[in-house]
C-alpha cells in the first residue's frame, strides 16, 4: 500500500473497518457483561481519522490523566493496539469487576487494580482481534498488555508516533459504554503496519494479490 | 505577563518576551527549545521521529528532528536571531510502556539521541535536558528567565 493511501481509504475499505469495529464492539459488550456480571450497553462506535493533536482533546486534553493499555500485534497483522480511558471510567470498570461499590482509583493504583485493568484491556483487544480474524481468516497474535497511568498526550504519543511513520493522522474507533455501575468512555486505536493494512484489505478481496 | 503560546504534537512556534511557550504531554516525543538570551527570543518544537528519510509521509517538517530543527532555526533567523547565538534545552523521550522482551532501543531514546546529535553537529550548546524515564512531561519556557519548567503527574515541578 502506498503511504499516501492510508488517509485515502475508499468507501468500501472504510465500510470494512466499520464492520470490523461493529463486530468487535459486539464481542466486547458480551465479554464485558460477563466480566462485570451485569448488562452492558455499548454505543455504535464512531470511526474517523484525526490529526495528532485532536486525539488528546477527545479524552480531556493532553495533560488529563488517563489509563492506556497497549497490546503489540504479531503475525498476519503486525503493529499495535491501544485502549484509552480516563480515570473515572477506569474506576467504574474496576469497581464493577471487583464488585466493590463506589471507590475512586488513587494516584498510585494497587497491584490488584492494575491487574484487573490489564485483563480488561486484554479482553477488549481480544474482542476486536477475533472480529478481524473472523472476517479475514488471519492469524493475529497479541502480546501481554502493558498499562500506563499518565498524561493523555504522553500515552497517545506512542500510537501517534507509529502512525507518524506512515501518515499525518491516526485512525480512531471511539466507543462509549454504559453498565449498571456507571458510564465509562474509552477509545481504541488500531495501528497496523502498512503491511498489516495491506494484508487486511487483500484478504477481504479489496486489493489484488 | 504576556501570553502562553501553545505548541502541539509535530508542531513548532516562535516566542518573544514577555510571552512564554509551552507543549503538553510529552511522552516519547522530544520538546526542544532553541533560545537567544540577547534578544529574549525562542522557538519550541515538539518532535515525534528522528529522521525524515524513513517515510514518504514527510510533508510536515516539524514531525522529524532533522527537518524540524532546520526549519525552526530558519524561523528564528527570520526574526533577526543569529544562529550562532542559539542555545538549547530539551525534555521528553520517555519509555511510556514496558513491553517485556523488547530489547530494541525505544523510540524515546532514538529521538533523544537524534536531537543531541543534530545539536552537536550544528554547534548549538545543550544547556540542560530532562529526558528518559517512564513518565509524561509538560514543559514551559520563559525567554526572559530562560528557565524551562517541567511538570509531571505526581512529581514536584522542576526548573532546568
Helix content bin of chain B = 10-25%
Calculate Rg of chain B over CA atoms.
15 Å
| Strand content range of chain B | 35-45%
> How many strands of chain A?
8
Descriptive notes:
With 209 residues, chain A is α+β, with helices and mostly antiparallel strands. Chain A has a single domain (6-203), classed as CheC-like (Chemotaxis protein chec, 3-Layer(aba) Sandwich), CATH 3.40.1550. Chain A contains 6 helices and 8 strands; from the N terminus they run H-E-E-H-E-E-H-H-E-E-H-E-E-H. Chain A has helices at residues 11-36, 52-58, 87-98, 111-136, 152-164, 194-203; strands spanning 40-42, 46-51, 65-75, 79-86, 140-142, 146-151, 169-179, 182-192. In chain A, strands 1, 2, 3, 4, 5, 6, 7 and 8 form an 8-stranded antiparallel beta sheet that branches. Chain B has helices at residues 65-78, 107-121, and strands spanning 4-7, 11-16, 20-26, 30-36, 41-47, 87-92, 126-131, 137-142, 147-151, 158-159. Chain B has 160 residues and is α+β, with helices and mostly antiparallel strands. Chain B has 2 helices and 10 strands; from the N terminus they run E-E-E-E-E-H-E-H-E-E-E-E. The model of chain B has no long low-confidence stretch (mean pLDDT 94). Helices cover 18% and strands 35% of the residues of chain B. Classes of the chains: A alpha+beta (209), B alpha+beta (160). The interface between A and B is medium-sized, with 36 and 34 residues.
Amino acid at each position: 500500500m502506498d503511504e499516501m493511501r492510508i488517509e485515502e481509504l475508499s468507501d468500501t475499505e472504510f465500510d470494512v473497518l466499520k464492520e470490523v469495529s461493529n463486530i468487535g464492539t459486539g464481542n466486547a459488550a458480551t465479554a464485558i457483561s460477563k466480566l462485570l456480571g451485569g448488562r452492558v450497553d455499548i454505543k455504535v462506535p464512531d470511526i474517523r481519522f484525526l490529526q495528532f493533536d485532536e486525539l488528546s482533546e477527545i479524552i480531556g486534553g493532553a495533560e488529563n490523566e488517563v489509563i492506556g493499555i497497549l497490546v503489540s500485534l504479531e503475525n498476519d497483522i503486525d503493529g499495535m493496539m491501544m485502549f484509552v480511558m480516563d480515570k473515572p471510567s477506569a474506576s467504574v470498570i474496576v469497581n464493577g469487576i471487583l464488585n466493590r461499590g463506589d471507590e475512586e482509583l488513587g494516584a498510585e493504583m494497587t497491584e490488584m487494580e492494575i491487574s484487573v485493568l490489564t485483563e480488561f484491556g486484554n479482553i477488549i483487544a481480544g474482542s476486536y482481534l477475533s472480529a478481524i480474524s473472523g472476517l479475514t481468516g488471519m492469524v493475529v497474535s497479541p502480546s501481554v498488555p502493558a498499562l500506563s497511568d499518565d498524561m493523555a498526550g504522553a500515552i497517545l504519543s506512542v500510537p501517534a508516533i507509529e502512525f507518524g511513520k506512515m501518515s499525518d493522522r491516526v485512525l480512531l474507533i471511539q466507543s462509549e459504554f454504559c453498565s449498571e455501575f456507571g458510564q465509562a468512555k474509552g477509545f481504541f486505536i488500531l495501528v497496523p503496519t502498512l503491511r498489516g493494512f495491506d494484508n487486511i484489505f487483500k484478504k477481504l478481496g479489496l486489493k489484488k494479490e | 505577563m504576556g501570553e502562553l503560546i501553545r505548541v502541539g504534537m509535530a508542531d513548532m512556534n516562535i516566542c518573544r518576551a514577555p510571552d512564554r511557550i509551552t507543549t503538553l504531554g510529552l511522552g516519547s516525543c522530544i520538546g526542544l527549545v532553541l533560545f537567544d538570551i540577547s534578544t529574549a527570543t525562542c522557538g519550541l518544537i515538539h518532535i515525534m521521529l528522528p529522521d525524515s528519510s524513513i517515510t514518504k509521509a514527510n510533508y510536515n517538517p516539524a514531525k522529524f528532528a532533522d527537518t524540524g530543527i532546520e526549519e525552526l532555526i530558519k524561523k528564528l533567523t527570520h526574526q533577526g536571531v543569529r544562529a550562532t547565538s542559539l542555545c538549547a534545552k530539551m525534555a521528553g523521550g520517555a519509555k511510556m510502556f514496558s513491553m517485556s522482551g523488547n530489547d530494541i532501543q525505544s523510540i524515546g531514546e532514538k529521538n533523544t539521541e537524534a536531537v543531541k546529535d543534530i545539536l552537536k553537529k550544528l554547534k548549538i550548546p545543550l544547556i540542560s535536558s530532562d529526558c528518559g524515564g517512564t513518565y509524561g512531561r509538560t514543559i514551559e519556557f520563559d525567554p526572559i528567565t530562560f528557565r524551562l519548567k517541567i511538570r509531571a503527574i505526581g512529581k514536584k515541578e522542576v526548573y532546568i
